[in-house]
Amino acid sequence: MADSLVLVTGATGIVGTAVLADLKGKPGIKLRALVRNPDKAATLVKEGYEAVLGDLEEPDTLPQGSTAWMSCSCLRPPPRSSPRWARTLSRRQGMQV
After folding, report:
1. I want to staple 7 with a disulfide (CB 3.0 to 4.6 A). Which of 40, 49, 66, 68 is the partner?
2. Is residue 73 within 8 Å of 19, Cβ to Cβ?
3. Which one is predicted more confidently, 38 or 2?
4. For the chain, what are the domain ranges?
5. Cα 81 from Cα 31, distance rounded (Å)
6. What was the pLDDT predicted at 27?
């Protein structure tokens, strides 16, 4: 049986790199990392991954032939030092900033 080709989007982010590391070397899975930045693609290639350039907002740039796609992203609150954080905190405390 042929390996499943899995395209990981967000491959250079926090979650994407963890997914790549977890799946690397698993039997039956061939990994492909989708990246927008050629420099980051080169870094992934040095680490032994197949990297392809593409952008989810430009469908013509996306590679064909993947068995599965894994989109990896992580939402986190803004840093406490940001103006947005200060506004959110002040609203919760009933203050104006």
Report:
1. 66
2. no
3. 38
4. 4-92
5. 37
6. 92
Q: What is each CA distance from 36 to 10, 56, 59, 89, 90, in whole angstroms?
A: 9, 9, 13, 35, 37
CATH topology for the 4-92 domain? Rossmann fold (3.40.50)
pTM of the model: 0.64
> What strand order describes the sheet that includes 29-35?
50-53, 29-35, 4-9, 68-71
CA distance linking residue 6 with residue 85, whole number of Å: 37
What is the rounded CA–CA span in Å between residue 54 and residue 33? 10
